[in-house]
Amino acid sequence: SQTHVYTDYTISKPPLPLPPLSLSLSLSLSIMECHWPLILFLAVNLASVNHIGEAKECKFPAIFNFGDSNSDTGGLSAAFGQAGPPHGETFFHAPAGRYCDGRLVIDFIAQS
Predict the structure, then answer these.
(1) What pTM did the predictor assign?
(2) Is the per-residue pLDDT at 65 higher than 80?
(3) Which domain holds residue 87?
(4) SS3 for 45?
(5) What is the pLDDT of residues 38-50, one digit of tens each?
(6) Cα–Cα distances in Å, from 56 out to 76, 98, 101, 109?
(7) Phi, psi of 31 (to 5 degrees)
(8) I need a labelling partner for 88 at 20 to 30 A (CA). Which of 23, 32, 59, 74 fits?
(9) How many structural domains comprise the chain?
């Protein structure tokens, strides 16, 4: 077996120094330091502006949920037979064919 020995040791040059901040950037930063409370106040207020009267209610005739284990509203029962108790009786007050005992994420989305 051959062993390879590398003896070429090269040292890279030191990195170039960073240029100083430009005058316009340093002026901008100094102005922001003085006025950051005002800028923060304006940003928060502009972000939280609620356009009252412009919101329109959306009504959809149906929601198609290509379910997973967190939102299965009965497909599992259809495939593998009726779920055992409590199968949704706590919220719906009747058997709902679910393996959970209440509402799922998709129910809350549909209600909203």
Answers:
(1) 0.39
(2) no
(3) 75-111
(4) helix
(5) 778 877 777 766 6
(6) 36, 33, 33, 17
(7) -70, -40
(8) 59
(9) 1
